Amino acid sequence: MTYTLTFRLKTEKWQEDKLNKRLEIGRNIYNACLREILKRYNTMINSEEYKQIQQMAKGKERNKLFNKLNSKYGISEYSLHDYVKPMQHHFKENIDAFTAQKIATRAYNAFTKYMYHEADKVYFKKYGELNSLEGKSNKTGIRFKDKCLIWNGLIIPVIIKKNDIYTHEALQNKIKYCRIKREMIKGKYHYYIQLVLDGVPPLKINKQTGEIKNQTTYGKVGIDIGTQTVAISSNYDVKLLELAPEVVNIDKEIKRIQRYMDRSRRLINPNKYNDDGTINTQNKDKWIYSNRYLKAKNRYKELYRKQKEIRRQSHNNLANFILSLGNEFYVEDMNFKGLQLRAKETTINDKTGKYNRKKRFGKSLANKAPSLFLTILNNKLKFQDNKLVKVDTRELKASQFNHINEEYNKKKLCQRWNDLNGIKVQRDLYSAFLIQHVNDDLKSVNVELCNKDFDNFLKLHNKEVERLKNIELSKALRNVI
Questions:
Q1: Strand 2-9 to 388-391 pairing
Q2: DSSP characters for 288-354?
Q3: What is the per-residue DSSP string for 106-143?
Q4: What pTM was computed for the model?
Q5: Could you tell me if residue 420 is left (phi over 0), alpha (psi between -120 and 50 degrees) or otherwise beta?
Q6: CB under 8 Å to 421, separation ≥6 — which residues?
Q7: What is the pLDDT of residues 388-406, one digit of tens each?
Q8: Distance CA 334, CA 394 (A)
């Protein structure tokens, strides 16, 4: 069990310059390691041995031969550690041995995603793109000691609040290793130290009442996650909530800044464009950017940074609320990557005769980040020796099942209400209720438990529907005023 604790560094200008220099050296070491491992991999896949093994039937014997071939060509994490030694010695005044090894490990992990076809290609870090470095322990290299960051001659004080009980309790745990992080906020870099601590985070206490925040209860909780909303069903509460409602759509402002940046680039770099307006790839001159362009670029980054922080904070609050509803959590196994992709088939609208758009849920997923929410919820559950249980969506079919007559009825996506023999229930809330009462095989619904708990669900459901109606009414009145 590990968790992180982040503190801001009280830096001076010369210390910031030192940190920036070391991050840039780290970037060059990372790119060198990535280039070397790719070179070794390309040599291996072009060898006759590799081609012969690849033609074999898949199995344990084939995997053993591939592992031997990897060792022969030096495609391993520890071979990269050996490769990085002379580079670290050259930069020993700035980068210690443990940090250099961690950079090599980072490059190797990026490469393995490409090798195992989890990524289409590997990306080298451009200037200013590497914003963090970490060590391997708190004994040498990057260290936290006496409320200061100590690293190769740098001693930078850390800003810690005096009356922060949570922080002082967390610092009682063992520090496994430290990470230095740089973040651009409002056009200026801010520097942080992240302590990776061993153990479980301390419980947060309400200062006014002295009670423990977000106390858990017992019972099953069903979660029906969508692209923008989440439906929750438990024995104590039923909710249909918008994911990250505080996140404001900033598409218009983003497009306005992008148009300005494009005009500025074209005006200052006419030699970089062809007559038809496309970029001239043959021209190798450096791009020139005006000061106003750089300011616009910083505004552009700042908008996305704000959205990211607001979204993460909102997801954490929602996860804490859900954790207070029970101790067993079930959710549909969703493929969000598939929902991001454009539709493959080209279809024509029957009414207009025009081609339908191939866009799907890319923007919704980018703004609301449902996958991130599930990751945050699962991480919080791990600290309770628990986990988020994913039910089999194809077998369960919660949106089609009717527990009263035990039949499956297909519905269109636009149908938001289910008719259960005259009883109307909201589709997402009812799906969450069925997921809550899934059997141990995670493929079927326990009908007996559904019948037993349905009256309680219906009572909580009607209460939630009334709340949603009041919200819609208040929005309508606000628009009229």
A1: unpaired
A2: ---HHHHHHHHHHHHHHHHHHHHHHHHHHHHHHHHHTT-SEEEEE---HHHHHSPPSS--B-TTT-S
A3: HHHHHHHHHHTTSSS---PPPTT---EEE-S-SSSSSE
A4: 0.84
A5: beta
A6: 404, 405
A7: 999 888 888 888 888 888 7
A8: 10
Length of the chain in residues, anyone? 481
Measuring CA to CA, how many Å separate 143 from each of 178, 179, 243, 272, 294?
6, 9, 38, 46, 35
Residues facing 132 on adjacent strands: 181
Q: What is the pLDDT of residues 271-307, one digit of tens each?
A: 999 999 999 999 989 999 999 999 999 999 999 999 9
pLDDT in tens, 413-432: 777 888 887 888 888 898 99
> Residue 187's closest CA among 294, 113, 298, 268?
298
By CB atoms closer than 10 A (0-12, 13-18, 19+), residue 364 is middle
φ, ψ at 39 (rounded to 5°): -60, -45
Instruction: Tell me what the mean pLDDT of segment 458-481 comes to.
Output: 76
State the residue for tokens 């991480």.
379
Decide if pLDDT at 479 tops 70.
Answer: no
